[in-house]
Write a structure and sequence with these properties.
By secondary structure, this protein is an alpha/beta fold. Among the domains are: 232 residues, FAD/NAD(P)-binding domain (3-Layer(bba) Sandwich), CATH 3.50.50.60; 143 residues, Glutaredoxin. The protein has 17 helices and 26 strands.
């Protein structure tokens, strides 16, 4: 019997990302996907800056940006409206809450949007995951699973040969989509408005360069059709997507010629030569699973939450689920964390998903209002895209209890529980983005007078069994030359950004979120840091400091 540590069910964007992030941490995993290969449909394509941060840390960012669609769409921006593509744009949506793909996000991150279509993103992610050791099996269907106190027994069938195998794993991750069979077998319900509308997604080829001209948009809403419709470029030339509102029964019965006529009506060229590549119906829905964990089984991506495509938050939220879960599973598998660390996956990610789904539904309704030309303004509770991407907070008793610089239970001071701010440090001849120091281990950053924290980090790491990389941040580059693990802070932002004094320190989790801080150095830094780290890990016992 095979015995990988983790089995992943579902080999689409989020499942592949789960395999990537686990393999990045040395976790042996098997991914099973019933389809015989990767998606050939250019579905989701907006990879937002936060998700690109994670792909950068996993070493896949260059491949995504090198993809054909990413290169072709690198200069595209804007959500526009037109009667048909040929009639020309007559309105551009520029609401304050909408931050476009060409928005300057440098306040938050050194990384930008990437418009890479799913049929090109998935091969890049899969290739990197395999390089790191992930076992990815297409044409393999999960037929059942049983969990017990020690693990999960998974039955799979090779669809080409009919061979049935049993795999015994410690954990199972369900990335099997909105109609998740795993979620249904567990009896986990969903809450939310459900299906909001039904669409037909038509992937087609037609040379539209002359009609398009110099315009380079992300999406163009079209008013000539009697139903809601939108045109999306795949390469700004001959590959395109058309979304058309369409009842499921109508979509199932629609002929190829009818699809071509819809494309011609949308483009505004009656005799346009069109090749329909694929027509796929889909439901625009919104809901969140009632729990993201059942024993040793975890839900990620659409299995955990679905939302409208407005703003491209769906797949991005799913990839971030997978990243949050990966480092926690890695520590649990090494018996370096208590069971409650895995509980924190649901406690942290489900509120984020619930808030994101609510916000995306508001955006979707507002987008529909604007395309219909309705009077009035957006809902006052719509938050900016940057807020949703970068400023949500994880609330955890373990995190808050370890924050010696805040009132007990508040956790509000200087962002404990939030993503670490974007800072730029320096070493001789080198720019160092804080982002690039994160992603693998816990990282401790200490102020210029915090020399004692380097030894404290080594002691805490040894006692808790987890790596902690320590850096001392100094104001001048000359000091950074003097030793390893010393960074210069030329803009002098470190202390203010984290709320620490010259001898204080901050501890950042492997996923880049602030876990703990000490505004000033306590009498025994090693004791405080070890206690904080053990609480963050939900360790069964606090390591001895004797």
């Amino acid at each position: 019997m095979e015995s990988p540590s983790v089995v992943i069910v579902g080999g689409s964007l989020v499942g592949l990302s789960q395999a990537l992030f686990l393999a990045q941490r040395g976790v042996d995993c098997v991914l099973v996907e019933r389809h015989h290969g990767l998606s050939t449909h250019p579905r989701a394509r907006g990879i937002n800056p936060r998700t690109m941060e994670l792909f950068r840390q996993a070493g896949v960012e260059p491949r995504l940006r090198a993809a054909e669609s990413a290169r072709a769409l690198a200069g595209n921006s804007g959500v526009v409206m037109a009667e048909t593509l040929a009639s020309g744009e007559y309105r551009r949506l520029d609401q304050a809450y909408f931050m476009d793909t060409d928005t300057d996000f440098s306040e938050y991150t050194p990384v930008s949007w990437c418009l890479c279509h799913q049929d090109e993103a998935e091969p890049a992610i899969a290739a990197r995951a395999r390089e790191l050791g992930a076992d990815i099996r297409f044409g393999t269907e999960m037929t059942g699973f049983e969990q017990d106190d020690d693990g999960v027994t998974v039955t799979v069938r090779d669809l080409a040969t009919g061979t049935v195998r049993t795999i015994r794993s410690r954990y199972l991750v369900a990335a099997d989509g909105a109609r998740s069979g795993v979620r249904e077998r567990l009896g986990i319900g969903v809450a939310g408005p459900g299906t909001l509308s039904d669409f037909l997604n038509i992937s087609f080829t037609a040379d539209l360069r002359e009609v398009l001209g110099a315009r380079r948009f992300v999406i163009c809403y079209l008013t000539a059709l009697p139903v809601r419709a939108a045109l999306l470029p795949v390469n700004n030339a001959d590959r395109w997507l058309l979304h058309v509102e369409c009842e499921p029964e109508r979509a199932a019965a629609m002929s190829e010629e009818e699809c071509r006529e819809l494309v011609r009506a949308a483009v505004g060229v009656p005799d346009l030569k069109v090749t329909v590549e694929q027509a796929a119906p889909w439901a625009m829905a919104a809901n969140v699973a009632e729990t993201f964990r059942d024993g040793r089984v975890f839900l990620v991506g659409d299995a955990a939450h679905v939302m409208p495509p407005t703003g491209a938050f769906g797949s991005n939220t799913g990839v971030q689920d997978a990243h949050n879960l990966a480092w926690k599973l890695a520590l649990a598998l090494e018996d370096l964390a208590g069971p409650a660390l895995l509980d924190s996956y649901d406690a942290e990610r489900r509120p984020v998903a619930t808030e994101t789904v609510g916000q995306v539904v508001l955006r979707s309704k507002d987008r529909s209002r604007m395309t219909r030309g309705d009077a009035g303004g957006p809902a006052p509770v719509i938050r900016s895209d940057a807020e949703l991407m970068f400023t949500y907070r994880y609330r955890s008793d373990a995190v808050i209890a370890g924050d010696t610089g805040a009132e007990p239970g508040s956790g509000e001071t200087y962002g404990v529980g939030v993503r670490a701010p974007h800072l730029v440090f320096a070493r001789p001849g080198e720019r160092v983005d804080l982002l690039d120091l994160l992603g693998r281990d816990f990282v401790l950053l200490a102020g210029p007078a915090g020399i004692s924290w380097t030894k404290a980090a080594a002691d805490a790491a040894a006692r808790c069994g987890v790596p902690v990389t320590a850096h001392r941040v100094t104001p001048a580059l000359a000091e950074a030359v003097s030793g390893q693990g010393v960074l210069a802070d030329p803009l002098g932002r470190f202390g203010e950004a984290f709320g620490v004094g010259p001898d204080g320190a901050v501890l950042i989790r492997p996923d880049g979120f602030v876990a703990w801080r000490a505004a000033t150095a306590p009498e025994d830094p090693a004791r405080h840091l070890t206690g904080a780290l053990s609480r963050i890990l939900h360790a069964r016992t606090v390591p001895s400091l004797v």
